[in-house]
Amino acid sequence: MKKRGFNKKRWLGSGLLLGMVAGLVGCGVQMVSLTLEDPRAVALEQNPFLGFDSGRIYADATGDEVWGIESDDCKKVAFSPEKTFKGSNAIQLDWDKTSCDWVGMGIGWNGWAAKDLSNVMATGAIQFYVRSINGETHVPVMVFLLEDYGEKRTASALRAKYLEAYPINEDWKKVQIPLASFPYQKDGVDLTNIKQLVIELQGNGEVIIDELEIVPYKENARTLKTAKPSITPVGNLPIVLFEDKLSNAWGLEKNECRDFNYSTAEKSSGQQSLRLSWTEPACKWMPFGFSWNSWLGVDFTNIPAGAHLECKVKVVEGKASGLQIGFQDYDFRQALVRLEDRYFESGRPSNAWQKVRIPIADFDFAGKGINAANIKNFYATASGSGTLFMDEIRLTQ
User: Fold this and answer.
1) Strands 194-202, 141-148: pairing kind
2) Strand pairing partners for 309?
């Protein structure tokens, strides 16, 4: 076996290195350990959208990536080349789900290839632009669902707080639905294998949407402002909710189920009242409502003790108790009471105008899970059949 001999060069090199280290320490220089990092991993952490190429969901496409473009008794979903935010096509949605089990459409963007959204769910949003077809409209009930190729879905609803401004009218408004609002972990959705975006339509509505994409979601001044709808306190009572005119009403229409509209022939005072006529066998969905505060949320938490919802009612046919009235919050929850005899000033409804007074406490906001700090609108729905007139709706002491 050959023995290792003394290597003078190695010894000199080692000695020189030790001397340099000792000198640096003596000068107060500290030695630190270095770790090697993956530059791309660092960049992804700083910007999860780096290299994300599945952001464009819809922009002008008219091929088989978009399904549900059709018209039937419940909907008219069509491409709209006349009214677009950008490009050559938008998607027109005109629907009434009264007599249908399911109404909606879907987009399998990127040619139905699997999309990996795992890196952008915490910081991204589904962004699109919306406008009404004609005039002003209420915020429609639209549910957005991400579906994976294992057919599991996770959903988030369009809420008023996601809109850039109120109300929805013929001007284009930006909408951003945070991806973090989808309960994908609870729903067990595989974010690395997303198949499509499904848009489920409830109730009724008439809007056009365009330029759907996934973008970074930043809580800037605008989004902080609309994280909740602008909320105003109830203020000094009395407050008029309806008297002659409603500028932000929905559900006032005539169809096979109901005839909800204005009446100038019958009125308690002023120029017109609300005429509500309905029959249940034809339909199961008969609500209507209106915002008396331009779609800004109203905070009822500090409403004075003893406050009432007051109105004038004249019953023509059927039972007044077939009508439930109350309030809806911005999470689509309602607190309603029936027009029972005890609320009428005479102790029973009649075919003459009389005052109805319902204590706010009877709506039981807490018990019904309604957010009293963010009330959206007056809300009513009917069952059975009947015809009555309502007027002078207000909040009073």
Assistant:
1) antiparallel
2) 358, 395
Vertex 237, ends 393 and 228: CA angle to 5°? 85
Specify the DSSP class assigned to residue 31: P
| Full pLDDT tens readout for the chain, 397 residues | 444 444 444 444 444 444 544 454 455 545 444 445 555 455 555 677 877 888 999 998 888 899 999 888 888 999 988 889 988 999 999 998 777 778 899 999 999 999 999 999 989 999 999 999 988 887 888 899 999 999 899 999 898 889 988 788 899 999 999 999 998 988 889 999 999 999 998 888 899 999 999 999 875 333 333 334 457 888 888 999 998 877 678 788 887 788 888 888 888 888 889 999 988 776 767 888 888 887 778 999 999 889 999 999 999 999 999 999 999 987 788 999 999 999 999 999 999 999 999 999 999 999 999 999 889 889 999 988 999 999 999 999 8
CA distance 96 to 99: 8
Pairing of β 258-263 and β 124-132 = unpaired
Which SS3 state, helix, strand or coil, does residue 278 take? strand
pTM above 0.85, yes or no: no
Go through the domains of the chain in sequence order and give each one's CATH number. 56-226 (2.60.120.430), 231-396 (2.60.120.430)
* Cβ contacts of 55 within 8 Å, gap of 6 or more: 49, 213, 214, 215
